[in-house]
Amino acid sequence: MTTKNEIIAKPEISIIVIKGGFVYIGRMEKYDYLGDECYRITGAKCIIRWGTKKHLAQLTSGPTSETTLGDPCTVTCQKYQVYYTIDVQQEAWTKHVD
Known about the structure:
Helices cover about 10% and strands about 45% of the residues. The protein contains one helix and six strands; from the N terminus they run ββββββα. Strands 1, 2, 3, 4, 5 and 6 form a six-stranded antiparallel beta sheet that branches. The chain is globular. It starts with 12 loop residues before the first strand and ends with a helix.
């Protein structure tokens, strides 16, 4: 339980690759649903077009001029559906996620 003086930190922004090949940018947090470990990605935007010359990790410093993002949504999935995450520079992505 939180008190009114307690500040709740937002989860950090990261690139999340989930089952089916979907790639999102957003804030991922873990939660329990009926005993299963699940994840909720808030402010999630599907990275429709990476817009990079080499690989996905080039987006750690922010989107390129060629990057295309979907509309924001909330994505929920089970732990086994998350293939991997990539840490990003928070200040470079904040205006695109929040």
